[in-house]
């Protein structure tokens, strides 16, 4: 991925997200998904803007089908915000950076 986002697999989801301290924003995406590609640069910037506060993780649903199924992901992009391993918010669809930041700010106490 990059220095601001991390790829997470089915095998690593528990350790990287569910057992992580603090906030983790998980982006469920796929290479063939146009809206996913549209939101990717905003998530990259958010990873930098919120460094130390919110970790941005990306799960490729084609390579890792177990985790999206477990969390009921039906369309992509779907973003889920976890705090200390607990799901606190979910957002589906490609939103502009300003709306994504507002969503994060609203759900990160």
Automatic annotation (TrEMBL):
What Pfam families has UniProt attached to this entry?
A: Thioredoxin
Gene3D superfamilies linked to this entry: Glutaredoxin
SUPFAM superfamilies, alphabetically?
A: Thioredoxin-like
Query: What residue stretches are annotated with the Thioredoxin domain?
Result: 1-109
Q: Is Disulfide bond given among the entry's keywords? A: yes
Residues making up the signal peptide according to the UniProt record? none
Q: Which UniProt keywords apply?
A: Disulfide bond, Electron transport, Redox-active center, Transport
Q: Does the keyword Iron apply?
A: no
The similarity comment for this entry is: Belongs to the thioredoxin family.
Q: What is the name of the protein in this document?
A: Thioredoxin
Highest classification ranks of the organism:
Bacteria, Pseudomonadati, Pseudomonadota, Alphaproteobacteria, Acetobacterales
